Amino acid sequence: MTTVQTVSTQPYSDQKPGTSGLRKKVPTFQQPNYLQNFIQAIFDSLDGIQNQTLVVGGDGRYYNREAIQIILKMAAANGFGKVLVGQGGILSTPAASCVIRKNNAFGGIILSASHNPGGPKEDFGVKYNVSNGGPAPEKITSAIFDRTKTISEYKILDASDVDLDRIGTTQLGHTTVEVIDCVADYAAQMETLFDFAAIQDLLSRGNFRICIDSLHAVTGPYATAIFERRLNAPAGTVQNGVPLEDFGGGHPDPNLVYAKSLVDVMFKDDGPDFGAASDGDGDRNMILGRNFFVTPSDSLAILAANATLVPGYRNGLTGIARSMPTSQAPDRVAEKLGIECYETPTGWKFFGNLLDADKATLCGEESFGTGSNHIREKDGLWAVLFWLNILAVKKQSVEDIVKEHWATYGRNFYSRHDYEAVASGPATQMMDDLRSALGSMPGKTFGSYEVAYADDFSYTDPVDGSVASQQGIRIGFTDGSRIIFRLSGTGTEGATIRLYVERYESDASKHDQDTQAALADLIQLADEISHLKEITGRDQPTVIT
């Protein structure tokens, strides 16, 4: 017989959720009652969980299985009626959102540190998603944090572990735990949005080859099932397709630095026609053509401009939403389509209200995340299928589609420079110094650039009126160029300073410039204004995208 145990505990002071939940090193989560405290704080902060359905899964990183067993027993002890858990403990973040929505679940707990490394000494994360399938809004994450500061006990069922590898149901006390196929619901939803027959025809042509790199992260089973089995791409199309607890020692971040093996394949003269990579939990994407990289900002703009070619978006878009640091390329598409383009803070939760209110259909962030109203998370494989659907219809190369887009709308030269694991004190001081200088900047001239506006971005949600302030420092120039500085909230040590630089070019004869060369004077200007290199002691960014 199983019994509910009430265990005494002490609060931890460092359990404030960031942009995407609570992220810490694995040894931090392994401290006595650390995970249990945070899970109980989630349950204590929610009203009406009795007999409700909870979805649980993660990206397969180290500590995923152990954490899931704890969460299942705590969910049972706290009165959930049913828990749906991905087979092997696996659920990509977009698949978890899909499963929550399909099953009208109360919410879900997703175990991931997204694109951060995994392993015994690396990163782990826990986030709560609400009933619409999207990340918990700030009022809930704040309530969870407040609860962590006063927690004195948690409830857990004294029971055997659940067999996570066998599809089927198990009873944990009065709670039914159902282990589900982690791919099925998600793949079925993709088939309702995209023309699988057209994509299958594209992939069956001998002259069109693709390469999908799952970086030994969560999308391996999804990509293999969809591309190699359902769409008949050749075996081996998906590389690094087996999820590993340490992601094979790699960094599961789909960018030009960390997905180098894919980049090397795609930049050969006889490379595949199309390549894509996704991240640890499957919500980000990188799109490549042969010898050609598509920036995430351009990708969002191109998907929006071509949306009516895809069955799920044939009737057009109600609006587009982009995060503030994302380039203004999607704004130009929205203007031509006669629809709104919303500029939000960074963090997918800010898109949720717009999607729920049908104010936006497509949304995206420059950090390799794009998505739509089909779920309430960004979705890496969705973006890949969207691109393949467009390629199947237009019968052009990736490079030709992008250059045709630039010829129509102009090109937003754009780059992000990440300075990772910077000491928090100097990084914060740099931002404070910039903030204090903003008032005197408008009208100032730096070389050939005149400042049109300078502010610390604040956002008022058009749906619920909530306000998010201090979301990043923007310096905009009269020619439309921008420099943006943000401290990232997705790392687990030190601070990551992100510098974003953007310049618009309407002259098609100048569209083939190298991006870093086209932005060189603005990059230098950003350093002069912020003293970034002096403060960080770094000559070069850690990553340039």
Automatic annotation (TrEMBL):
Q: Where is this region: Disordered?
A: 1-25
Q: Record's PROSITE patterns?
A: PGM_PMM (PS00710)
Q: Which GO terms describe its biological process?
A: glucose metabolic process
Instruction: Provide ranges: composition bias, Polar residues.
Output: 1-18
Q: Which cofactor does it need?
A: Mg(2+)
Is Signal given among the entry's keywords?
A: no
Q: Which domain of life is it from?
A: Bacteria
- Tell me which EC number(s) this protein carries: 5.4.2.2
Sample GO molecular function, one term: magnesium ion binding
Q: Which InterPro entries match?
A: A-D-PHexomutase_a/b/a-I, A-D-PHexomutase_a/b/a-I/II/III, A-D-PHexomutase_a/b/a-II, A-D-PHexomutase_a/b/a-III, A-D-PHexomutase_C_sf, A-D-PHexomutase_CS, Alpha-D-phosphohexomutase_SF, PGM
One cellular-component annotation, GO: cytosol
Tell me which Pfam families the record gives.
Answer: PGM1_C_vert_fung, PGM_PMM_I, PGM_PMM_II, PGM_PMM_III
Q: Which NCBIfam families match?
A: PRK07564.1-1
**Identification of the protein by name:** phosphoglucomutase (alpha-D-glucose-1,6-bisphosphate-dependent)
Give the organism, scientific name.
Answer: Leptolyngbya iicbica LK
